[in-house]
Amino acid sequence: MAVQKVLLGGQWVAADSSGTFTAENPRTGEALADSYPVSSWSDCDKALHAAREAFDHLRTMPRDQIAQFLEKYAELIEQRKDSICALAAEETALPVSPRLADVELPRTTNQLRQAAAACRNGSWALPTIDTKANIRSCLAAIGPVVVFGPNNFPLAFNGVSGGDFAAAVAAGCPVIAKSNSLHPGTTRLLAEAAHDAACATNMPAGTIQLLYRLDHADGERLVADRRIGATGYTGSRSAGLKLKAAADAAGKPIYLELSSVNPVVILPGALRERGAALADEFASSCLMGTGQFCTNPGLIVLVAGQATEDFVAAVGEKFAAAPVGTLLSRGGARSLAEAIEVLKTAGAAVVAGGEGGGGTGASYQNTWMRINGDEFLQRPHLLQTEAFGNASLCVVAGDIAEVKRILDQLEGNLTGCIYSHTQGEDDADYAAIEPHLRQHVGRLLNDKMPTGVAVSPAMNHGGPFPSTGHPGFTAVGIPASLRRFAMLQCYDNVRPSRLPELLLDDNPLGATRFVDGQARS
């Protein structure tokens, strides 16, 4: 069994490892062929040293060269599409088509190209000039960035190809990627493409590096190291909070995506108007991808009445009838089962599902639960336990006043949605509850399930804790996502020949800038 090499300082080298691991096919439970190293601190130290050297070069590198790398990388991913998607499907049980080849891979290359455009223009850096005082400022790269990729998006959120990676590189930061242990082979193929693109565009050695797995102590040491500028992490709340504690103690920024139940409120008029259609829409959204989306609707709030009972029954029938998908791993199936047990112990009643199995390999029955609003208010923390997968909890409130009290108890979420009557019957109720939801969610939707996340400049894929570690930043949406990996640099009475291009009077990059309080290009 081959032990794959790590990418350090521009070279594929044998790891200084403390052990090895293998990925597993979630459908069959069988170990896949290759073995991957668990790197020691020595590998981390080498990666940090190479990243600092790369950063010294990137700071003075023309923006166009960095943009060319991102574009070349996108091109190589597309050229290697078949092999990347085939291995990703084997490691995650996600279908090649349409999920990986037709949706996720094009999203990956699209965001790389959007990041290249932002890098080339420079407006993302918010250049600001006060001509009277001769003070100028802009955002600039913060330093080497560590990116921990999640299990559920092996391409579009991968540590070596996803949104955090694209944003960090476009901001001018080298990246040390930590592969997710569920899809190390996919990450290796992507890193090979990134390395080839870096060589083709003469990027500094150490711009892109890859480690497969670390022990927990070394992971915490890595994010706190003085040579690191910032960290991007998507994954479990428990692991993320340990990394955050280590980074916070060292004063290092860390941007986390941790947990979200993404509440959906369906108002009474909407249910009376189109309840059957909404049951279809919700069931499709919740079960899409076996529910393994960070924006999966995991908490539905309704007002008691016959239309609500009809909706709950209809969703239960759809969950029971729908095929049970394969989860990303046996560990994911165990975590889902544990979360559902927490919800049941806290008082949730199972309408459909509620047991393990039912599908091929790692699986858990499609699970639909309910609880009354007054019971939810007695144990709101436990009843917001994230059941990451094909499960959701319905909370039936007695009236709109109770809906408001329920919303007031919400933790921070990535998204929140309100469905209302199309002809205005719910407008008063909407106005009453919207302020109670708005401050608990990063993205507010109307009459639309939250599962999709468009790579749009206006997108916010962030929110209050614990959905993310900081409510002011987004992991999706270029150019805003670049600003996580930057520091504000001010120039006071600095000679023009010593200023960065973004702050020169003649604006050679054509960036949008704030000059004496006015936006100018």
Describe how the helices and strands are arranged.
Layout: E1 6-8, E2 11-13, E3 17-24, E4 31-39, H1 41-58, H2 63-79, H3 81-92, H4 96-121, E5 128-130, E6 135-141, E7 145-148, H5 163-170, E8 175-178, H6 184-200, E9 208-211, H7 216-224, E10 230-234, H8 237-249, E11 254-257, E12 263-266, H9 268-287, E13 299-303, H10 306-321, H11 330-345, E14 349-352, E15 367-372, H12 373-378, E16 391-397, H13 400-408, E17 413-419, H14 427-438, E18 441-446, E19 486-492, E20 513-515, E21 518-520
Parallel strand pairs: 5-20, 7-8, 7-10, 8-9, 10-11, 12-13, 12-17, 13-16, 15-16, 17-18
Antiparallel strand pairs: 1-2, 3-4, 5-6, 6-19, 14-15, 20-21
Helix pairs in contact: 2-4, 2-6, 3-4, 3-6, 4-5, 7-8, 9-10, 13-14
Descriptive notes:
- The structure is a single chain.
- By secondary structure, the chain is of the alpha/beta class.
- It folds into 3 domains: 267 residues, Aldehyde Dehydrogenase, Chain A, domain 1, CATH 3.40.605.10; 184 residues, Aldehyde Dehydrogenase, Chain A, domain 2; 26 residues, no CATH class.
- Helix content is 38%, strand content 20%.
- The chain contains 14 helices and 21 strands.
- The strands form 5 sheets. It has a 7-stranded mixed beta sheet. A 5-stranded mixed beta sheet has the order 19-6-5-20-21, with no helix packed on it.
- The longest helix has 26 residues.
- The protein is globular.
- The N and C termini lie far apart (57 Å).
- Gross morphology: globular
Radius of gyration, whole Å: 24 Å
CATH architecture of the largest domain, by name, is 3-Layer(aba) Sandwich
Oligomer: single chain
Strand order of the largest sheet: 14-15-16-13-12-17-18
Q: Class by helix and strand content?
A: alpha/beta
Weakly predicted, low-confidence segments: none
- Summarize model confidence as the mean pLDDT: 97
Beta percentage is 15-25%
Distance between the termini: 57 Å
Specify the CATH class of the largest domain: Alpha Beta
Residue share in helix? 25-40%
Q: Largest sheet, if any?
A: 7 strands, mixed
What is the total tally of β strands?
21
Reported by name, the CATH topology of the largest domain is Aldehyde Dehydrogenase, Chain A, domain 1
Q: Give the CATH H-level superfamily of the largest domain.
A: Aldehyde Dehydrogenase, Chain A, domain 1
